[in-house]
Amino acid sequence: xxxxxxxxxxxxxDDIKSxxxxxxxxxxxxxxxxxxxxxxxxxxxxxxxYNPIEHTKARLKAPESIVKKLKRNGYESTIENxxxxxxxxxxxxIICSFTSDxxxxxxxxxxxxxxxxxxxxxxxxxxxxxxxxxxxMIVSLPVYLSDRIVNVKVEIQIRTVAMDFWASLxxxxxxxxxxxxxxxxxxxxxxxxxxxxxLDARMLSLNDxxxxxxxxx
Length: 217
Ligand code: 0O2
Description:
The chain is α/β, with parallel strands linked by helices. The protein has one domain: Beta Polymerase, domain 2. The protein has six helices and six strands. Helix 5 packs antiparallel against helix 6. The longest helix has 34 residues. The termini are far apart. Ligand 0O2 binds next to helix 5.
């Protein structure tokens, strides 16, 4: 029996009854995806002699944040709605040095046969009005339990160190002002986002130049 938590034919209520079960499934999906990312990074290091990934973070969304998100989108707080409508119960953040690494990592993940990419949001090509930049993927991967396979959704956010620096401060500020930061702070954040984009571009170009010199040796 295959339960598809990521697709439209969801038969959850019969099989997943509790938060504990949701927790187990999403935690298992997180473990799998973290192992995959670690293997890809090690292989990349072996072949290309550099590490595209600076560090990774994984988290399960807190139950109260899940409930808040459901409420915000007009859904009742049920296990079924959680699984169906909240795409980031399991979340992984991959931090890398250069913008080009982001697309390499996204491609390596997408090429894995057991991973299905459900959606991609490229906030690098199309930054959010706030100035937020990052590459988001919602993927689904199978978790093998003793009596069934469950496809579980994981949100992967891939960004550079500089994008992460900006997003962390912006998140802190929005939290402090409950999303209503004074206009001059929002405008300063926007300016900083432009500087971050410029910094990322210049660092990438410097790195490309150094790589070209090394390749000639
Ligand atoms: P938290 O606390 O980080 O988990 P979806 O999740 O796809 O159903 P949404 O909100 O359209 O709905 O997804 P989107 O735009 O891909 O954003 C999801 C996550 O990206 C957010 O999660 C943040 O982590 C991050 N994010 C998006 N926009 C911004 C932004 O302007 N600033 C910062 N700092 N982060 C952002 P949550 O659930 O909001 O929160």
